């Protein structure tokens, strides 16, 4: 499975940005698609995830109510709509996919496939 993330950039605080991740290869049987992020000097952290089959979602507390994750199985894409951005959202955002189930894992060790990441920078 190959994952290609796009949509990052520079945005002012309070603004919005939409990330997209396209999956290719053996996508059949994937359980969840997720977004993680890593800020400079910090560990990679879970942001949001969605199950491919039923569309169940899970969010980190820090982004609940601001970020929305969605998927399009026909296109094999997962998007992350990010609203009300602040400087703490500045990070390298990566998409990931796993074949486990049935719960949505927030642990990066449970995800088998990773994209290269896209940079999001929020200016204050």
Strand content: over 45%
Radius of gyration: 13 Å
Q: How many helix segments?
A: 0
Helix content: under 10%
Describe the 3D structure.
- By secondary structure, this protein is mainly β.
- The chain is 0% helix and 50% strand.
- It is built from no helices and eleven strands.
- The strands form two sheets. Strands 2, 4, 5, 6, 9, 10 and 11 form a seven-stranded mixed β-sheet that branches. A four-stranded antiparallel β-sheet has the order 1-3-8-7, with no helix packed on it.
- It starts with a strand and ends with a strand.
- The mean pLDDT is 96.
Question: What is this structure's SSE topology?
Answer:
Blueprint: E1 2-6, E2 9-12, E3 17-24, E4 32-38, E5 45-51, E6 57-59, E7 67-72, E8 77-82, E9 91-98, E10 113-114, E11 118-123
Parallel strand pairs: 2-11
Antiparallel strand pairs: 1-3, 3-8, 4-5, 4-9, 5-6, 7-8, 9-10, 9-11
List keywords for this structure.
seven-stranded mixed beta sheet; 50% strand; 124 residues; mainly beta; four-stranded antiparallel beta sheet
Describe what is shown at a glance.
With 124 residues, the chain is mainly β. It contains no helices and 11 strands. The strands form 2 sheets. Strands 2, 4, 5, 6, 9, 10 and 11 form a 7-stranded mixed beta sheet that branches. Strands 1-3-8-7 form a 4-stranded antiparallel beta sheet, with no helix packed on it.
């Amino acid at each position: 499975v190959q994952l290609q993330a796009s949509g990052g950039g520079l945005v002012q605080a309070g603004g919005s940005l939409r990330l997209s991740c396209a999956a290719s290869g053996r996508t059949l049987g994937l359980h969840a698609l997720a977004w993680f992020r890593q800020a400079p000097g910090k560990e990679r952290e879970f942001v949001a995830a969605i199950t491919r089959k039923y569309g169940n979602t899970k969010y980190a507390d820090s982004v609940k109510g601001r970020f929305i994750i969605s998927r399009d199985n026909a296109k094999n894409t997962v998007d992350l709509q990010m609203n009300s951005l602040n400087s703490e959202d500045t990070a390298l955002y990566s998409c990931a996919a796993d074949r486990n189930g049935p719960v949505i894992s927030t642990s990066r060790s449970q995800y088998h496939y990773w994209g290269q990441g896209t940079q999001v920078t929020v200016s204050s």
